[in-house]
Amino acid sequence: MIRITETARDAMQGIKQMIPTSLKVSYVNELLNVGFDTVDCGSFVSPRLIPQMADSSEVIKSLKLPERMPELMVLVVNTRGVDLALQTGRINCLSYPFSVSPTFLKRNLNTDESGSLNMIREMIHATKNHPIEWVVYLSMALGNPYGDVWNPEIVMEGAAKLYDLGVRRMPLSDILGNATPTVIYDVYKQLIPAFPEADFGIHLHTKVSESYEKLEAAWEAGVRSYETVVNGQGGCPTAADEMVGNLSTQDLLAFCSKKGIVTGIDPSAISQAAALALEF
Predict the structure, then answer these.
(1) pLDDT per residue as tens digits for the range 209-262
(2) Tens of pLDDT along 69-109?
C-alpha cells in the first residue's frame, strides 16, 4: 500500500510571475480527480515572503470538490495562518515546516528549535475542536547543506520531540536534493522501528537521473508515504538562492509500475494535469 500526496503548493510557490487565480483553481481541480490521497493546495504565510500563495483562500473556496474527495492540505507557520485555513471551511489537513537544521529554521521561519516547537504546540491546540490532521515536516533530515551538525541521532531526537507533541505524520524533507540512497535507507531503517505508530513519509527534491535509486532506497527501508509534483516543478524559495525541482509524480508512478505497486492513480487524469501545469 502506498500513500501519495501531490504538492501543488510546492509546484507554484517559487514562480515569480504571478499565476492567475483562475488557472490555479483549474489546476487544483484537475488534481482532485487524479486519485491522490492528499492534495497540498496552498499556504497561509506572509504574502511578502511568498506572494504567489497570497490568493490561497480564494483558490480553496473556488474549488469544485469531487464526490471522492482527497484530503485537502495547506501549509501554515503560525496561529493566524491556522485561523485563515479554518475559515475556508474546506481544509482538513495542516502542515508545518519544522527542521533539524538551525540554519533552515532561521532562514525559513526566522526562529529556532524552541520557538518552532512552541508554535507547533500552539497551533495544534488551536485546532483541538476541529477535525484536523497535522503533517509536520522534518526538513533537512537527510543531510545538511548549511554546515550544521547532522547525524541520524539528531533526526531521531527531532522526531521524538514532535511525537511528544502528538504529531504522527512526519515526512522527512530533502529540499536541496543532497540526500543519497545510502543515507535515505539508513535513516529510515532507524526511525521507522523506533516510532511504529508514526508515518515517516518522504519529500524529495532531486535530479531526475537520481530519483529511481532514491525511491528504491526509501521503499526498501519501509517508507510508504510519498510527496510529488506533476512534471517535477517547484522548489522552496527561502531554503537557498537556487531551487531544486521536486520528485516528479510521473517518476514515482513509473517506479511503482516497475515494482508492481498499486497506486489507484488515473493515468489519463495525470496527463491532463501535466498539460495544464505547463501553462505556468
Answers:
(1) 999 999 999 999 999 999 999 998 865 554 444 446 899 999 999 999 999 999
(2) 999 999 999 999 999 999 999 999 999 999 999 999 999 99
- Alpha-carbon distance of 6 to 37, in angstroms, equals 8
Count of structural domains within the chain? 1
Q: Give the residue carrying C-alpha cell 500513500.
A: 3
- DSSP letter, residue 19: P
| Amino acid present at 191 | L
d(CA 234, CA 40): 13
CATH number where 256 lies: 3.20.20.70
What's the N-to-C CA distance of the chain in angstroms? Answer: 32
Beta strands per DSSP E along the chain: 3-7, 38-44, 71-76, 93-96, 133-136, 138-139, 172-174, 202-204, 225-228
Q: CB count, 10 Å around CB of 114?
A: 9
Rounded to whole angstroms, the Cα distance separating 149 from 9 reads 30
Backbone φ and ψ of 173, nearest 5°: -120, 130
**Global confidence as pTM:** 0.94
Where do runs of H (alpha helix) occur along 18-77? 21-32, 56-62
Range of the domain at 82: 3-277
Q: How many CB atoms lie within 10 A of CB 246?
A: 27
Q: Is 228 exposed, middle or buried (0-12, 13-18, 19+ CB in 10 A)?
A: buried
CA–CA gap between residue 185 and residue 217 (Å, rounded): 5
Secondary structure letter of residue 245 according to DSSP: P
* Measured distance CA(246)–CA(153) in Å, rounded: 26
Structural contact between residues 223 and 242, judged by C-beta atoms closer than 8 angstroms? no
Confidence of residue 1 (pLDDT cuts 50, 70, 90): confident
The Cα–Cα gap between 92 and 132 comes to: 5
Residue 267 has a pLDDT of 86
